[in-house]
Design goal:
Elements: E1 13-14, E2 20-21, H1 39-53, H2 56-61, H3 68-81, H4 86-92, H5 98-107, H6 125-138, H7 144-151, H8 160-173, H9 179-184, H10 190-199, H11 206-215, H12 221-231
Helix pairs in contact: 1-3, 3-5, 5-6, 6-8, 7-8, 8-10, 10-12, 11-12
Length: 234
């Protein structure tokens, strides 16, 4: 039997103990394309500072800025101030810039009233990856079907990072309906197989144990290590 349970939501980064981190592609801050000292960079700095100094009006003004990095920074500043509303997030998910949509998806992880399933069809893979992560964080049962579709090797997302995020989210949610997709991901690229092996900790039964035992012979040593940990192989 599986030696440990995957507890805790979500996504695309995790270890054998079930701990999960954010997608590896997540930038530490919105990407800035302007040189230091440019008007957009200065506005972004001011908006970021507003989030630390309690200036909601200035922070909110950044939501309508012409530069996407300023708009993304404004979302974070308002969240820091406790002034970010669900409607603000919904608007960010419709923003033309992927940077803003991605930041909106990240912040929506703590806002279950904000629908993010449609972002799994976003044209930008980084947005899809973050949307999957947020659904795992939220333990969103309604997203299991859409996440499973992303994982499919034949009909799923072309970007392996998106498949990786989706399979990790399925493990975080832990709904039995997601198990077939997780099992199928064991035939994907090494990074996806690792996430799938970790995700199996959320499930139980003969099929899970059989899959983990198959992982003991995987070409990737990290997949083998996860399987050994979960099966308590000495």
């Amino acid at each position: 039997m599986v030696a440990s349970e995957h507890s805790g939501p979500p996504t695309a980064r995790g270890g054998p103990d079930g701990a999960v981190l954010k997608p590896a592609t997540e930038p530490s801050a919105p990407r800035v394309t302007e040189p230091p000292g440019s008007p957009a960079t200065e506005r972004r700095r001011e908006v970021a500072l507003a989030g630390h100094q309690g200036d909601e009006a200035l922070a909110r003004s950044g939501l309508s800025d012409g530069d996407s990095s300023v708009r993304a920074t404004a979302l974070g500043a308002l969240a820091r101030l406790g002034a970010l509303g669900d409607d603000d997030l919904r608007a960010s998910l419709l923003d033309p810039a992927p940077t803003v949509r991605r930041r909106g998806c990240e912040l929506a992880a703590a806002r279950p009233a904000v629908a993010i399933v449609p972002l799994l069809d976003d044209t930008d893979p980084s947005v899809v990856e973050m949307a999957a992560w947020s659904m795992g964080e939220r333990g969103e049962l309604a997203a299991v079907g859409a996440l499973a579709e992303l994982v499919s090797l034949t009909a799923g997302h072309r970007d392996p990072l998106c498949r990786e995020a989706a399979v990790a989210a399925l493990g975080a949610i832990g709904d039995p309906a997601g198990l077939p997709a997780v099992l199928g991901a064991l035939d994907d690229k090494p990074a996806v197989r690792r996430r799938a092996a970790v995700a199996l900790a959320a499930f139980d039964g003969p099929a899970v144990e059989s899959a983990l035992r198959r992982c003991l012979d995987d070409r990737d040593w990290q997949v083998r290590q996860v399987a050994e940990d979960l099966l308590a192989v000495e």
